[in-house]
Amino acid sequence: MKARELIEQNNKKRALLTEENEKYYTNLLLYIRTKLTLSEQQSEEVLMEMLDHLTEGQQDGKTAQEIFGNDPKGYADEIISHLPRENKRKSFIFVSEIAINLVGWFLIMRSIIIPIIGTKASEEVYIISSLLLILLIMVMTALGVKMIFGLISQRSFDENATDKKMMIRAGLYGAGGFLVILIISFFVKEIGPSFILPWQSSLGIGAILLLTSWIMKKSRI
Amino acid sequence: MSIRSQLLKGILDGCVLAVIEKEPVYGYELSKKLQKVGLEDVSEGTIYPVLLRLQKNKLIVGEMRPSESGPNRKYYSLTSAGQETLETISIEWNQLSVPINALLSKGDEPFEST
C-alpha cells in the first residue's frame, strides 16, 4: 500500500478513537510526520500499525497511555531514531516539483499584472535578476516550511502552546520573509542581459509548468 | 526504569524474533503473545521501535495483507539472517543462563563442587 492510501485510511480510522486516545495519537502523528527527512512510506506504515494497535487496545479497554507509555515525546523520538531516511532521489524530485510549481505561479502572476500596468518596460526580463529572485523565493519557502513544521512538532507535546501563539509566529515569519524578498528584489532589479517576454507567453509557460508539477505530484504518489 | 525492564531490554529482540519464528504475526498479536508467555510488563508500545530496528537490520520483513478479522495488517516474518541471529541469541542465552542461574539462585552453591 502506498503512503497516500495509508494517509487516507489513517484519517478515517482516527475517527474511531476516543477523544483522549485521539489526542495522544494525533500528537505522536504530527511529531513524526513533521520530521521531513524520514522515509514517508516507512513513517506512514508504522503510524498505521500504531493506530491499529490503539484501536484494538481500545476495544479491550486500554488507553493510549497504557499502550505507549507516559512519555509520548520520548517514545516518538525512539520511533524516529529507528526510521530510515527518505532516499535522495525522492527528495530531489519533491523539491523540483515545488520549484516548478513556484516558477509556474510566478509567471502566471506576471501575466496578470503586466496587462494591468500596461507598460512595455514591464515585459522585459533580466535573466540574472530573475534567477536570483527565484532562488531567493525557494530558499525562503524552504526555510518557511522548515520553521512551520518545527513549530508544529514543538507544539505537539507542549501543553502551554496555543494555536494563537503559533499563528502569530508563523505570520511574523511570513511577513518578514516577504519583506526580505521585496527589499532584495528592489536592489537586484536590472542585472545582466535581458529579453522581452510578452504576458501571453508568460501565461502559456506558466500554465505548462503548473501542469508539469501537477503531473509530477500525481505520479509521485 | 525497573530492574526487570533493564534486564529485558537486552533480550527483547530475541524474544520478538522467537515469536515471529513460530508464525508470521502483526503488532497487536505479537504484544499479546509476549504477554501470554509471561512478559506482562513489556509495555505494548515498546515492540514498535524493536520491530523497526529488526526491519532496518533486515532480520525481519513486513508485508501488508488481510488479517483473520478482515482489515489489512502488516505481518512480520523472519529472513534467513533473522533465523541465524535467533539461533545465535539462543546459544548465547543458554551459555549465559546456566552460570547466572547457578550464581543467583538461592540454595545453590556453584563454588562448592570440587
Automatic annotation (TrEMBL), chain A:
The chain crosses the membrane at residues 92-113, 125-149, 170-188, 194-216. Keywords: Membrane, Transmembrane, Transmembrane helix. PANTHER family: MEMBRANE PROTEIN (PTHR41307:SF1), MEMBRANE PROTEIN-RELATED (PTHR41307). SUPFAM superfamilies: BH3980-like. This is DNA-binding ferritin-like protein (Dps family). InterPro entries: DUF1129.
TrEMBL record, chain B:
InterPro entries: Metal_resp_DNA-bind_regulator (IPR052509), Tscrpt_reg_PadR_N (IPR005149), WH-like_DNA-bd_sf (IPR036388), WH_DNA-bd_sf (IPR036390). Pfam families: PadR (PF03551). It comes from the Bacteria. Residues 16-87 form the Transcription regulator PadR N-terminal domain. PANTHER family: PADR-FAMILY TRANSCRIPTIONAL REGULATOR (PTHR33169), TRANSCRIPTIONAL REGULATOR RV3488 (PTHR33169:SF14). This is PadR family transcriptional regulator, regulatory protein PadR. It comes from Psychrobacillus psychrotolerans. The lineage of its organism: Bacteria, Bacillati, Bacillota, Bacilli, Bacillales.
